[in-house]
Write a structure and sequence with these properties.
Elements lengths: L2 E4 L5 E4 L16 E3 L4 E2 L1 H4 L4 E7 L4 H17 L4 E7 L11 H10 L6 E3 L4 H6 L3 E2 L1 E6 L4 E5 L15 H11 L13 E2 L4
Parallel strand pairs: 5-6, 6-7
Antiparallel strand pairs: 1-2, 3-4, 3-7, 5-9, 8-11, 9-10
């Protein structure tokens, strides 16, 4: 049974489930340690036209297959007003392979051109209902969720992608057109909560 919980701030999420399309971005001002050495929030990462939040990590094979597309997405859409941030919520591994030091190294080795931050206590992932790495959430300029799920239909090979779900969603958002589909299934490793 799904129980919908609405908080006075306008955040709507399913207990035991993820944010619904149209929900407000939760915990926008929640402080996270960024690889830049400074704290960052979702509000800091926000773009004028929208914001892309990717729950990610350093070691998941699904992330490793898809993360070249993170950089391409940032190159393509940051100039068009889409803010982007990758969030590592693997709190159970912050003392090892998902430590901030390892995140800095991972981002450098993979050419990250966007903020990458640690989610203390996996609070952001819990508020979003995120369960996988990668798990994608796209918000419009009003911080309303317009797309969630997967980046595209082929984690193994970017050249064999037939449906670029996320790019299509961003293009539609920027053009003021309906997004279809608004949700796809996130594929990846499970987030390692505390």
């Amino acid at each position: 049974m799904k129980i919908i919980l609405s908080i006075m701030t306008g955040i709507t999420f399913l207990i035991g489930g993820e944010l619904e399309i149209g929900s407000a971005m939760p915990l926008k001002d929640f402080q996270m340690a960024g690889i830049s050495g400074k704290n960052i929030t979702l509000s800091n990462a926000k773009g004028d036209a929208g914001t892309l939040v990717i729950f990610s990590c350093n070691t998941c094979p699904w992330v490793i297959r898809w993360e070249d597309r993170y950089v391409t997405l940032a190159n393509t859409y940051a100039p068009k007003g889409i803010g982007m941030i990758a969030v590592n919520s693997n709190a159970a591994r912050f003392g090892s392979e998902d430590s901030l030091e390892e995140m800095v190294e991972h981002a450098k080795n993979n050419g990250y051109n966007f903020p990458y931050a640690q989610d203390p206590g996996s609070k952001l992932a819990t508020a979003f209902g995120a369960t996988k790495t990668p798990h994608i959430y796209l918000f419009n300029a009003d911080d309303k969720l317009v797309y969630l799920g997967a980046i595209d239909d082929n984690a193994k090979n970017a050249k064999k992608v037939e449906v670029p779900f996320l790019a299509n969603a961003i293009d539609a958002l920027l053009a003021g057109k309906p997004i279809n589909p608004q949700a796809t299934k996130a594929l990846g490793c499970s987030i390692k909560f505390n």
